[in-house]
Amino acid sequence: MRIAVDVMGGDHGCGVVIEGVKRALQTEKRITALYLVGDRSEIHAALPQRGFRDHRVHVVHASEVLTMTDKPAAALRKKKDCSIARAVELVHDGKVDAVISPGNTGGIFAAATFKLGRIPGVDRGCIATVIPTPDHEFVLLDAGANIECKPLHLAHYAVMGSIYSREILGYQNPRVGILSIGTEETKGNELTLGAFKLCKLLDLNFIGNVEGHDLFRNRVDVVVCDGFVGNIVLKTCESLALAMFSMLKRELTANPRRQLGALLAQNAFRTIKRRMDPEGFGGAPLLGFNGTVMKAHGSARERAIANAIHITTENIQHQVNQIIANEIARANERLIADETVAAIVLSQN
Amino acid sequence: MRIAVDVMGGDHGCGVVIEGVKRALQTEKRITALYLVGDRSEIHAALPQRGFRDHRVHVVHASEVLTMTDKPAAALRKKKDCSIARAVELVHDGKVDAVISPGNTGGIFAAATFKLGRIPGVDRGCIATVIPTPDHEFVLLDAGANIECKPLHLAHYAVMGSIYSREILGYQNPRVGILSIGTEETKGNELTLGAFKLCKLLDLNFIGNVEGHDLFRNRVDVVVCDGFVGNIVLKTCESLALAMFSMLKRELTANPRRQLGALLAQNAFRTIKRRMDPEGFGGAPLLGFNGTVMKAHGSARERAIANAIHITTENIQHQVNQIIANEIARANERLIADETVAAIVLSQN
């Protein structure tokens, strides 16, 4: 496997990303070539600093970076030599099998859209995030790429999320639900009501609508929503989990008695933190594109980058994109075969 | 103050609600009359069982109940003698100053809409929920009443939420934000982009867009969104907090060493649980109606009912509805004075 890593654009600089790459390569023997894409001099300074020598590593220079505040589409046009564009081009040119970037999400999405294009039959790509719960993980998609969605987009997300859950998380028959405000088919907004009609027709373990209440109770494995809702849900969960951890820390260090108690029970807290840590997955795949593209968290540190690389190799190994192409084609055939639904879908496009 | 409590329709039966009323009356001397609305025989059986005698208590019979699965508007038409309808009628007839119900949210909202009507100038009512964070509380509105919103609705929610935060939570100059997917004015969907333009013109401490990340970091006091997003956020937070508490419990009881640690640190957990407990507020007000209407959680137990009654007396004391009427009128004047905005608002209605 050959992977390109955009080492620029993360919050902690290229050194942290390179250290993550180093760790991943130590265990990941399936990788035969790894391209570090970014500022040549920064990379060449970071490599020896970290004692990183590996014959699989190559450097691809890019003189520019998309910053977190850049407007994606416009900045991509302007900064032609930016690292994310160069890295995605390596996928397009067949030089690597996948690309990973901790940079500007919109920029990665725009680069994938413009330079790779979508898998035939997929109307919109999306970002899928794995969210840990005490007893399992669920895939949330779209996590923020596509703000104004149509029912067909959600139906495609259901198919792609189901594949991702099966191939990468190992759920045999993932339960797919539409995130809404009541479990009945009649509850929801125009978008979710339409998506419900489409999902019913697909070859999925579709369990109908799910509510916010269901997310952390091991009731659903794939949670489908538009990118506006998904982004808010994802960030709200991160914010609340973080707040509860920091409150726990504050309270447990408030006096010596509690400190002793916390010391005795420290493995309990470690387990919880490890279990609920979003960095455990490290990467959120962009699904629906002609190429494997993984978004790492902007604040990803070494371990998260290493995990993102690991998840990326799993994506390649399991041929997620080929499966998506096949199953989306089958799904579209089913939808078009239903006259009422076909009319709805066509009228929206 | 005179308050009506719909004792039917909660998950735990009328006895639990009546016990909550009993507790509230023990401390709440401002209440001069309290009407228990529901099945007469059930109420008369529950009162002596709980040793509840108070000269302020009156019973108003209602032979029917809106269940959680009833379709609100249709059921209200059919079940003319249901407890929520009877209780809201007491407000309408001027016999009480406020009503509290733990029943079907849609039913309470429909009863308020049909029987009380909206405060002049308010285009849509909403449900406001107080969400606790480690360091403060924020008001989230709409929490699920109004699924398809227009920018003007969100602007009105901003005004009403600001008043509620100031009068009931005691924030002097509450920070009002629109829940979106980026802090820049240009980030969001059609609804939030429009609402941003309107909120800028209002006499509010409007801090612009907030993201999911900001919710539990003490950055915003009033979070404005449509009822679809609000309901999902509210239930997701409840679900995640509950999952983390139960995971903590499971891990802390896993072996004797951890159990001892947990015992030593138990006050830390108590503090966190008390702090993050949604029952602490007990009631979510319906804002924008000609009358004070408080929704208690369907699963509310005695303490939550008592808290809902306490919050309701605060609403009456602070004349929240009168302030809303005045400030909404002022807000509408400001919006209409801006020609561009007036054109947008009018074109949407």
Task: Give a verbal description of the structure.
2 copies of one chain form a homodimer. Chain A folds into 2 domains: 1-117 and 289-318, Isopropylmalate Dehydrogenase (3-Layer(aba) Sandwich), CATH 3.40.718.10; 124-281 and 320-349, Isopropylmalate Dehydrogenase (3-Layer(aba) Sandwich), CATH 3.40.718. Chain A contains 13 helices and 11 strands. Chain A has helices at residues 13-27, 40-49, 72-78, 83-92, 105-116, 151-169, 190-200, 227-252, 256-264, 266-276, 302-317, 320-337, 339-348, and strands at residues 2-6, 33-38, 57-61, 98-101, 126-132, 137-141, 175-179, 205-210, 222-224, 283-287, 292-296. In chain A, helix 3 packs across helix 5, helix 6 (151-169) packs across helix 7 (190-200) and helix 6 packs antiparallel against helix 12. Chains A and B meet through helix 8, helix 9 and helix 10 of A and helix 8, helix 9 and helix 10 of B.
The assigned CATH architecture of the largest domain in chain A is: 3-Layer(aba) Sandwich
- Count of the domains of chain A: 2
Annotation field: number of helices of chain A: 13
Oligomer: homodimer
State the low-pLDDT regions of chain A, or none.
Answer: none
Q: Average pLDDT of chain A, to the nearest integer?
A: 93
Could you name the CATH class of the largest domain in chain A?
Alpha Beta
Q: Superfamily at the CATH H level of the largest domain in chain A?
A: Isopropylmalate Dehydrogenase
Distance between the termini of chain A: 38 Å
CATH level-3 fold name of the largest domain in chain A: Isopropylmalate Dehydrogenase
Biggest interface between chains: A-B, 59 and 59 residues
Question: What gross morphology of chain A would you assign?
Answer: globular
Give a count of the beta strands of chain A, DSSP E runs of length 2 or more. Answer: 11
Biggest pleated sheet of chain A: 11 strands, mixed
Proportion in helices of chain A: 40-55%
Percent strand of chain A: 15-25%
Q: What integer value in Å does the Rg of chain A equal? A: 21 Å
Strand order of the largest sheet of chain A: 3-2-1-4-11-10-5-6-9-7-8
Order of helices and strands of chain A: EHEHEHHEHEEHEHEEHHHEEHHH
Helix-and-strand structural type of chain A: alpha/beta
